């Protein structure tokens, strides 16, 4: 064994030394974030994951190839095969003949993850464009001036690091943005509340009455599912007034659990000798109409300060689904059932408002706002968007309604110095066709989110869907810049939009926004927008 170890050690050392430069190059080429931008507060972006995974695979493959197969005595048994293999292209089948008659063909290559415009099997080049290459205008205009994008479109491309405008076509024209509105909602909410803000749902006991009130705090992540691990804490009163964190546990992005809240509440009631309560629920934090102007729709539940699983009637967690008509009553009914399972009998719950004297027994809190924003953007979650618009309104001194949210978003973005000419907000999700944004504003939002001086806005960038991998871009870019483009989609009847970020062939991070109206075929319009974004990825345009 000692002889084996002595034989292997120097070869492994040489293999590692040989592979390290390739690992470094792979890591640099896959790095999405500009070196000028600060690191996010938590490593959860696709760039670090992809870079680390690729580097690890490359290192492992290099070490195994260099070491070669070994027999029982620890001696190399395939030196000749390895030497022949090193003269070929590393095991990839490029369609050429074998090096010798009867020699085994190399293993077929897997399709590349990153592919270039118009070529499903060619990797996106990361080399600089040759001197005298096409200007960005010549690259984009033919791709955007196509019938698939309807009778009107606007576009803008900006250097994400410097904020310099690289391309603009009617970028000041206000068009219907559809779900790209959520970028504005995210920036406004993070600016108003901060990335660490959490939303709290609580159970409060009215003194001397036996009335228990479930108080909604406008948490869009509250769930009744068993697998939820939410952040929970019992009140300090129930813990003897100790100034402690109340058993709060970080749950790695888990959502607040209604089951846990019921369990903690039942425990607190049992300690008091209470086994039966009059149950009510308080959803008065939000005001105004609960139903969106589009009416009852599978894309959005009635907006409520108390809701579990976004009022979904199935087990889905994203996308369209049938919804309950009264989310607050639905959540309270589930809470009552959980209390009953824990030994507490309740009356049928009804609406009420908790008094200022009501004593909090237990609470559950959402993950930090940064996580909530990322979920909203990745899945294009309309329920979260409308809740965040109302929370932004309340923090800004506006009513927690559709109108209050719209005014608060506009005011927050104006305060940030963004170009608001022509912009008009009517909701937080972009479902309202009366919303108007410009490509100039959308790219401005992305640049602001990447500002090193505003690290709290970074979840706007990290939450964008990754082409070919996550969220609303999972099934797109199969023949394009998969893994390179990160963008928020927007789709309504006759409206298609795409706004996000991409790293071009020079390694420069860009922010882009494409808006199209009057489209007739949503699939063809999406494909046209994807081709434009892919062209940015392969362009070394100055």
Helix share bin: 25-40%
Strand content: 5-15%
Largest sheet: 7 strands, mixed
Terminus-to-terminus distance: 59 Å
Question: How would you describe this protein?
Answer:
By secondary structure, the protein is of the alpha+beta class. Helices cover 34% and strands 15% of the residues. It has 13 helices and 14 strands. Strand 12 and strand 13 form a beta hairpin. The radius of gyration is 28 Å and the shape is elongated. The chain starts with a helix and ends with a helix. About 27% of the residues have low confidence.
Question: Which helices and strands appear, and what pairs or packs with what?
Answer:
Layout (H helix, E strand, L loop, with lengths): L1 H29 L15 H22 L11 H9 L27 E2 L2 E5 L12 H9 L7 E8 L5 E5 L11 H13 L6 E7 L4 E5 L15 E4 L23 H14 L4 E7 L44 H15 L3 E2 L3 E2 L7 E7 L3 H11 L2 H14 L6 H14 L23 H11 L9 H4 L23 E7 L2 E9 L5 E9 L4 H17 L4
Parallel strand pairs: 6-8, 8-9, 8-10
Antiparallel strand pairs: 1-2, 3-4, 3-14, 5-6, 5-11, 7-11, 12-13, 13-14
Helix pairs in contact: 1-2, 4-13, 5-8, 5-9, 5-10, 5-11, 6-7, 8-9, 9-10
């Amino acid at each position: 064994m000692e002889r084996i170890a002595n034989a292997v050690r120097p070869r492994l050392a040489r293999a590692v030394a040989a592979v390290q430069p390739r690992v470094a190059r792979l890591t640099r080429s896959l790095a999405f974030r500009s070196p000028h931008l600060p690191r996010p507060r938590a490593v959860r972006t696709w760039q670090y994951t992809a870079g680390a995974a690729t580097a690890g695979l490359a290192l492992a493959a290099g070490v195994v190839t260099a070491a070669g197969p070994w027999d029982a005595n620890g001696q190399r048994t395939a030196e000749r095969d390895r030497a022949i293999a090193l003269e070929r292209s590393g095991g990839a089948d490029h369609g050429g003949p074998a090096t010798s008659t009867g020699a085994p063909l190399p293993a077929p290559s897997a399709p590349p993850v990153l592919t270039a415009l118009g070529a499903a099997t060619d990797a996106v080049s990361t080399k600089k464009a040759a001197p005298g290459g096409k200007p960005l205008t010549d690259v984009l205009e033919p791709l955007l001036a196509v019938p698939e994008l309807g009778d009107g479109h606007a576009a803008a491309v900006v250097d994400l690091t410097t904020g310099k405008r690289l391309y603009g076509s009617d970028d000041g024209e206000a068009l219907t943005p559809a779900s790209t509105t959520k970028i504005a909602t995210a920036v406004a909410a993070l600016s108003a509340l901060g990335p660490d803000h959490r939303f709290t749902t609580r159970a409060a006991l009215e003194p001397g009455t036996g009335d228990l009130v479930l108080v909604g705090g406008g948490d869009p992540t509250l769930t009744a599912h068993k697998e939820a691990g939410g952040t929970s804490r019992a009140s300090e009163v129930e813990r003897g007034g100790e100034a402690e964190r109340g058993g709060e546990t970080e749950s790695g992005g888990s959502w607040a659990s209604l089951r846990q809240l019921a369990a903690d509440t039942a425990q607190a009631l049992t300690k008091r000798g209470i086994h039966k309560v009059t149950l009510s629920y308080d959803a008065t934090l939000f005001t105004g109409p609960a139903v969106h102007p589009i009416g009852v729709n599978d894309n959005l539940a009635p907006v409520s300060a108390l809701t579990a699983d976004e009022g979904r009637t199935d087990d889905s967690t994203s996308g369209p689904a049938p919804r309950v008509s009264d989310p607050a009553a639905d959540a309270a009914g589930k809470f009552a059932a959980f209390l009953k399972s824990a030994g507490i009998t309740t009356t049928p719950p009804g609406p009420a408002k908790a008094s200022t004297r009501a004593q909090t027994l237990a609470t559950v809190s959402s993950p930090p706002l940064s996580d909530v924003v990322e979920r909203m953007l990745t899945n294009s979650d309309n329920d979260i968007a409308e809740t965040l618009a109302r929370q932004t309104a309340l923090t800004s001194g506006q009513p927690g309604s559709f109108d209050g949210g719209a005014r608060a978003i506009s005011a927050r973005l104006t305060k940030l110095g963004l170009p608001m000419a022509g912009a008009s907000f009517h909701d937080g999700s972009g479902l309202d066709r009366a919303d108007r944004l410009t490509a100039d504003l959308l790219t401005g939002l992305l640049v602001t989110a990447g500002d090193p001086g505003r690290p709290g806005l970074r979840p706007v960038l990290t939450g964008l869907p990754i082409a070919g991998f996550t969220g609303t871009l999972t099934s797109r870019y199969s023949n394009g810049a998969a893994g390179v483009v990160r963008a928020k989609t927007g789709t309504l009847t006759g409206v298609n939009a795409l706004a996000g970020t991409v790293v071009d062939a020079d390694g420069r991070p860009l922010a882009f926004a494409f808006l199209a109206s009057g489209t007739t075929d949503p699939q063809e319009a999406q494909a046209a927008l994807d081709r434009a974004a892919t062209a940015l990825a392969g362009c070394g345009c100055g």
